[in-house]
Amino acid sequence: MSVTIDVKGLPAERISVVPSPLAELGMALHALSEPGHHPDLQGWVTAVSSRLDPCLADRLCEADFLWRTTFSDVFAPFAGLPGRRGLPGGTLAEELDLLDKLTDEQFVAAALEFTCHSQYSRQSLGPLGDPELRRRALDLAAARGAVQERFARRLLADPPTVRAWFRQLVLDCDEAFFADTWARLQPGLAADARHKTELLRRKGPAEALSSLSGAVSLDEEAGLVTIDKLLVGRGTTGDGGLVLVPTSLGWPHLMVLHRYDWQPVITYPAKATRPKAPTVEQLTLRMEALARSPHSTSELADAHGMSAPEISRHLAVLKKAGLITSCRQGRYVQHQLDLAAVSRLGSDFIEGVLR
To answer: pLDDT: is 233 or 288 the higher one?
Structure first.
């Protein structure tokens, strides 16, 4: 299982390494909503959460599916610009201006990414233009509860208003906690970007890409970048570029944007070299099915190309083994990996899953 990016004919000068304040804010929001994924950030999460205004915290809950279980592409708007050669902005304000350049169709499809796994790498009308995708989006949003269902309905009914709401939410987060965090992290991310750029210039794309993570490799003869992950996906640079975005708050996640007709983006942890993690093939031999974040049975079936009964059988095995927890939200039962239980199986396993 892996994500591949076709880079045939891509010259080295069209590979860019650039920090993104908006992407890092997305990582910050993910860490706040899923602190169990980021044990090394417990101090930061506690400090931010303790002083977060209750009204802002409530607003964050409305749309947490943008960053909690799926890292939405709304945090990389430069990738959706025509020509597929855009780059992240130098400031949060610049990146929000790039977000404004996306069409309503692009924004809605990216915001409801968790409902459209099967359409992610294909040409599609998206939930605004396809009644069946719209129905499915609302159904899966309802699985996350009434608050998320209301947000999805607002998004589909009035995209411009929700876009303005999201922009203001980002600005309020910046004022509340992110500006100070970004000021602290930006120099290190810029230094990492310079190092990777120099490596790209001196040693070439294969060396530079493999330095991102032991899970990233380039077959130069085939012109194919392979990212070892617990999913299958395909993207292509075409006549566009490839952007590498360092993150400090994102470890151990390795994110790959390979949406149809968007510029491919790899967001990688800008950390010191870590011990080589097991391959996904090795991990899947240890466990064939896994509920990584809260998902309903139908969501898991869609994401893995399996039937709902097949997923139910796998979940029953995992639950009997004490590796997942289940709870009802609205009309649906959500299943999630029990990180405390699985951590006893080994830290390498956790890192590989969360990647």
So the answer is: 233
